[in-house]
């Protein structure tokens, strides 16, 4: 059972964190820039593209405009999409689950266009291309 003392300690800890760490004071979607912009208590700004965040890729401007700052002031949420992001995670470049981030990185790598990659593809094509997969019947 949570006691009044537990609540007092949690509130004291939260107040200390807010006084010592930068936190979110304002959050909005700028449709002209196509960015979600966070203003921090330190005076710094942080912005990111919705398409770089899991669950926001196909969001409409109306869905992106509805942003909530959590009571802790260390996370934001998009209640119309049920997506939430911590400030710490965003500053570390985490905008989704580990699997989602890995898929995004793999897709970006696969889409790379370099002369070396083109030469390797041509050489592979001269050898008959990619081997056929054996399909069990």
Secondary structure topology:
Layout lengths: L3 H17 L3 E7 L4 E6 L4 E4 L12 H5 L2 E2 L5 E4 L4 E4 H5 L6 H13 L4 H12 L11
Antiparallel strand pairs: 1-2, 2-3, 4-5, 5-6
What brief labels describe this structure?
137 residues; alpha+beta; NE0471 N-terminal domain-like; 3-stranded antiparallel sheet; 38% helix; elongated
Model description:
This protein is an alpha+beta fold. Helices cover 38% and strands 20% of the residues. It has one domain: 2-Layer Sandwich (NE0471 N-terminal domain-like), CATH 3.30.2020. The protein has helices at residues 4-20, 61-65, 87-91, 98-110, 115-126; strands spanning 24-30, 35-40, 45-48, 68-69, 75-78, 83-86. It has five helices and six strands; from the N terminus they run αβββαβββααα. The termini are far apart. The strands form two sheets. It has a three-stranded antiparallel beta sheet. Strands 4-5-6 form a three-stranded antiparallel beta sheet.
Question: What's a quick, concise take on this entry?
Answer:
With 137 residues, the chain is α+β, with helices and mostly antiparallel strands. The protein has helices at 4-20, 61-65, 87-91, 98-110, 115-126; strands spanning 24-30, 35-40, 45-48, 68-69, 75-78, 83-86.
Average pLDDT works out at 87
Structural class: alpha+beta
How many strand segments? 6
> Strand content of the residues, in percent?
15-25%
What's the total helix number?
5
From the spread of the alpha carbons, the general shape counts as: elongated
CATH homologous superfamily identity: Uncharacterised protein PF10387, DUF2442
- Specify the CATH architecture: 2-Layer Sandwich
CATH topology: NE0471 N-terminal domain-like
Radius of gyration: 22 Å
Main sheet characteristics: 3 strands, antiparallel
């Amino acid at each position: 059972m949570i006691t009044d003392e537990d609540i007092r300690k949690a509130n004291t800890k939260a107040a200390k964190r807010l006084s010592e760490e930068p936190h979110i004071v304002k959050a909005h979607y700028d449709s002209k820039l196509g960015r979600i912009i966070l203003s921090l208590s330190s005076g710094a700004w942080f912005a990111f593209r919705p398409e770089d965040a899991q669950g926001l890729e196909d969001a409409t401007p109306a869905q992106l405009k509805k942003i909530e700052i959590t009571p802790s002031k260390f996370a934001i949420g998009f209640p119309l999409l049920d997506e939430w992001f911590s400030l710490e995670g965003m500053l570390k470049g985490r905008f989704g689950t580990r699997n989602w981030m890995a898929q995004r990185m793999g897709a970006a790598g696969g889409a790379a266009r370099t002369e070396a990659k083109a030469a390797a593809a041509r050489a592979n094509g001269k050898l008959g291309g990619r081997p056929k997969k054996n399909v069990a019947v």
